[in-house]
């Protein structure tokens, strides 16, 4: 333990010197002060930072005074009832967060045998991502980490809070979280939109010619806000005759089958839920959808969770050669 602390101190000193070499006050900083800096940066208020760290507000204020002297900058200034970081604080935040992460990694346990990992991994995803990833992921868990288990829950609209509250270990989302010091994200896969329909009930030509008049089905996960597809059609002056709204992709196939309903959906569904449906491109351009995996820094250096994130990436099927294109 003593050697770990020694290495940690040397590492911290070297990185702090790189941050602000001319000021010797930097060398008087310690891990506690840097932790307080990160807490204030995340919370945007001294009172909330104190509560987060379970310390008194005067202690946080005193720590900020020392940090201001060390870095020669106000760091946080008042804005209304809260405080906001200065440009200097914004530039320091990623560096200081990295210092704390590196120090934490020094005390991480030695790598474990995968067959001995008994972690209960929790993945948050909507039904589309869940159907795409879970089969391959579960197969890999059963094969490589037989003592581990998998829990899959619906994705929350507030992914960051779910990760911070340890409600899940990893979230799959098309939303890229704004810069957060304690949140990591990485691109996972992409998809494009297609217009799906039952080829026994309607032809591709009919869909192209009567797109606006035909009955439409739509997936809406929430009643608030306007779905992306609706905004795109409005921008192109395309009206839709929406006859059905459901809250999941899984509900659609049985409801659309045997009807003239059409729906704009992710193309990868053609390999699974909509394997017996036909599809054509939408009548106007749609942006490529990018999906990310997002996790909290509490699991960033964990060997089991590093393996889990790699397993999620490997579980994504190859992009399908979309079977059953629209019939003319």
Low-confidence runs (pLDDT<50, min 5 residues)? 1-7, 16-21, 321-325
- E-strand count: 12
Average pLDDT? 84
Strand order of the biggest β-sheet: 4-3-5-12-6
Largest beta-sheet details? 5 strands, mixed
H and E string? HHHHEEHEHEHEEEHEHEHEEEH
Helix percent band: 25-40%
The number of distinct helices, counting runs of at least 4 residues, comes to: 11
Overall outline: globular
C-alpha-based Rg, rounded: 25 Å
Q: Strand percentage, roughly? A: 15-25%
End-to-end C-alpha gap:
72 Å
3D structure, described in words:
The protein is 40% helix and 19% strand. By secondary structure, the chain is of the alpha/beta class. It has eleven helices and twelve strands. The strands form three sheets. The protein has a five-stranded mixed β-sheet with strand order 4-3-5-12-6. The relative contact order is 0.13.
Secondary structure: elements and pairs:
Layout: H1 2-20, H2 31-43, H3 46-53, H4 57-71, E1 76-79, E2 82-85, H5 87-106, E3 120-124, H6 127-144, E4 149-153, H7 159-164, E5 170-173, E6 183-191, E7 193-197, H8 204-209, E8 215-219, H9 228-235, E9 241-246, H10 252-256, E10 262-266, E11 278-280, E12 289-296, H11 303-314
Keywords:
single chain; 328 residues; alpha/beta; five-stranded mixed sheet; globular; disordered N terminus
What is this entry, summarized?
The protein is an alpha/beta fold and 328 residues long. 40% of the residues lie in helices and 19% in strands.
């Amino acid at each position: 333990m003593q050697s770990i602390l020694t290495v940690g101190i040397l590492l911290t000193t070297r990185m702090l010197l790189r941050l602000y070499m001319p000021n010797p006050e930097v060398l008087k900083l310690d891990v506690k002060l840097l932790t307080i800096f990160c807490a204030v940066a995340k919370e945007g208020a001294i009172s909330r930072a104190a509560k987060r760290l379970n310390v008194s507000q005067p202690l946080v204020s005193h720590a900020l005074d020392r940090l201001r002297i060390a870095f020669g900058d106000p760091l946080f200034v008042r804005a209304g009832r809260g405080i906001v970081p200065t440009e200097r604080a914004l530039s320091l935040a990623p560096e200081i967060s990295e210092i704390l992460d590196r120090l934490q990694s020094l005390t991480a346990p030695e790598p474990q045998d995968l067959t001995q990992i008994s972690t209960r991994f929790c993945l948050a995803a909507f039904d589309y991502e869940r159907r795409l990833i879970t089969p391959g992921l579960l197969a890999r868990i059963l094969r490589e980490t037989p003592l581990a288990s998998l829990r899959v829950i619906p994705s929350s609209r507030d992914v960051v809070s779910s990760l911070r509250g340890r409600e899940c270990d990893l979230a799959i989302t098309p939303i890229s979280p704004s810069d957060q010091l304690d949140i990591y994200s990485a691109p996972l896969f992409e998809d494009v939109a297609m217009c799906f329909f039952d080829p026994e009930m309607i032809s591709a030509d009919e869909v192209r010619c009567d797109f606006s008049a035909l009955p439409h089905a739509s997936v809406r996960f929430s009643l608030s806000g306007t779905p992306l597809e609706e905004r795109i059609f409005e921008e192109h002056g395309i009206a839709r005759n929406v006859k059905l709204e459901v809250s999941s992709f899984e509900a659609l196939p049985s409801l659309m089958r045997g009807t003239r309903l059409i729906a704009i959906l992710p193309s990868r569904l053609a390999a699974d839920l909509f394997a017996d449906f036909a599809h054509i491109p939408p009548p106007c351009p749609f942006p490529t959808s990018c999906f990310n995996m997002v996790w909290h820094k509490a699991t960033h250096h964990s060997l089991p969770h590093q393996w889990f994130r790699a397993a999620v990436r490997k579980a994504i099927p190859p992009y399908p050669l979309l079977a059953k294109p629209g019939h003319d």
